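S1.2 Input.
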Amino acid sequence: MENLNHLMFTWLNAPESPQGYALFAAVFLAEWLIWAVPIYLGVGWLVGDRRLRVSTLIASMSGLIGLVIAQALGSAWPHPRPFMMGMGHQLVAHVADASFPSDHLTLWWAVAFGTMTQRCTRSTGLAMALTGVAMAWARIYVGVHFPFDMLGALAVAGVSACLSWGLAPLYLSATYGLTQRIRLYLFSALIRRGWVRA
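S1.3 Output.
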């Protein structure tokens, strides 16, 4: 299996002198697109209706569970990254830590799958999940992950979303009440002006 992992990496990793447009797209997808997650969750929590706020809380819990599982797996099995093994072409700087599973894709897909558990945001979650495929390619292309790191992230994200959805009765009511009180306290002036939904 490791040989297949390495072979797939050599197919997907960047050439020695990548084209400018491919390099730009890969770096954007690999390094910067992840910031769409906190922006989406923050905006949804701030201006969305109750259904959207519930969805963002479940998605946030899915992402949190996913990152905890990913960190545990990385500590239990610290698989090296390609550049730590002298493989491929590394196009972005990265700390030499465990590669499996990908934290980026675990968070992205866990939030996407968590978003898909709610009917009102299912299409948004599906779009995020599909975009994650491009992000996964980019993380391999720039030389910081193997393909199996992405498969691991996909599996962890699926488990995380199932847990966040299944355990929602245990945490959702209290979490929603707490975050709503914080929201009303922080943005009371904007709510009074009608700029932010109550």
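S1.4 Remarks. The mean pLDDT is 94.
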